[in-house]
Amino acid sequence: MLSNKIADGVFKKLGLQKNNPGVFCGDWLGSGPVLKSISPIDGKVLGQVRLATAAEYERAMTRAEEAFQKWRTVPAPKRGEVIRQYGNALRDAKKDLGKLVTLETGKILAEGEGEVQEMIDICDFAVGLSRQLYGLTIAIRARAASHDGTMASARRRRNYQRLQFSRCRVGVEQRSRRGLRQFNFVEPSEQLR
Is the CB of residue 123 less than 8 Å from the CB of residue 90? Predict the structure, then answer.
């Protein structure tokens, strides 16, 4: 009950709903299965995300590839400025995002905010790199073989595999958090009050 009251306030501040589409590619999509976000704090459903169908996933990846073709023509310092703005937006919402991480993972509040701080640090790092590229390109080689021989197809397959892995990891993390409660660790909900 407590986590649901806190979640309602955090959701409102972050512009989230109880039911959310799970894919964005210029438009919000998600007509696949529903994934429930269950708080390991009390086992209650915090919200739901409607996942992408295979067709929606392909549409999102195609749009992402098109956007990348445009984005890579933007000079690095201008891309860095956009990332700086993302970092500032994360800073502005750090406390609420930290609470959301705590509610979804069962981490203590300091760890939840620490996760957000890591994103902020990565943004700051990327901004610094945007001023140091000197025209160099770091080559990344796809390890996965694609079915049609393109890098884009290999990237799609890897991303879909990561999505499947992350779903599995969330379930494992939730089960392990429930198991840790028996050792009388401080409940994260106590820090949210």
Answer: yes
Query: Number of structural domains, the chain?
Result: 3
Q: What string of DSSP letters covers 95-122?
A: HHHHHHHHHHH---HHHHHHHHHHHHHH
The C-alpha atoms of residue 116 and residue 125 are separated, in whole angstroms, by 14
Answer yes or no: do 124 and 153 share one domain.
Answer: no
Distance CA 22, CA 30 (A): 5
CB 87 within 8 A of CB 120: yes
Lookup: tokens for 81: 């400025």
Helix or strand (DSSP H, E) at 78: helix 76-92
C-beta of residue 112 within 8 angstroms of C-beta of residue 99: yes
73-89, pLDDT tens digit by residue?
999 899 999 999 999 99
Asked if the model's pLDDT at residue 152 lies above 90, the reply is: no
Q: Which domain holds residue 155?
A: 139-181
Q: How far is CA 5 from CA 66, 132, 192, in A?
A: 41, 46, 11
Token pair, residue 140, equals: 């990344």
Same domain as 151, residue 131:
no
Is the full-model pTM beyond 0.85? no
